[in-house]
Amino acid sequence: MDKISWKDEYSVGIKEIDAQHKKLINIMNRLIEMRNARVDSELISETLTEMTEYASKHFETEEKYMVEYDYPDYDAHKKVHKEFKKKTAFFCVDTMSHKETIPIEILTFLKDWWINHILKSDMKYKEFFREKGVV
Ligand code: FEO
After folding, report:
1. Which of the four CATH numbers 1.20.120.50, 3.40.1010.20, 2.40.50.100, 1.10.10.10 does domain 27-131 have?
2. What residues are in contact with ligand 1 under a 6 Å CB criterion?
3. What is the pTM of this model?
């Protein structure tokens, strides 16, 4: 599986959010790199935990901007974040309890989810925040 390379088209125009997306991509790339490592290694559990915790932190940041500027699609976006957290929490527990390595379908899901979410859902607010002068 190829790692994710940051592209300018992923930028939502807000420095703090772009930096968080870059860090999430970095964590994802580390998971992709260790796809053959056994899940009982400390590194895997630490990295999976880091990814879920950092995703939550990132969602909170994004939602904070949305509330502050009264973003019209806030409820729907927050719901998508919540579904991701629920799904990944399940994947992580299932992987750590029942698998030997991180299943490829989980890595595929995570990789596709982040790219699609940034390019489709997050990108919808780019113009809104730009008009509000948020950078
Ligand atoms: Fe960047 Fe909506 O997560």
Report:
1. 1.20.120.50
2. 21, 58-59, 62, 77, 81, 117-118, 121-122
3. 0.94
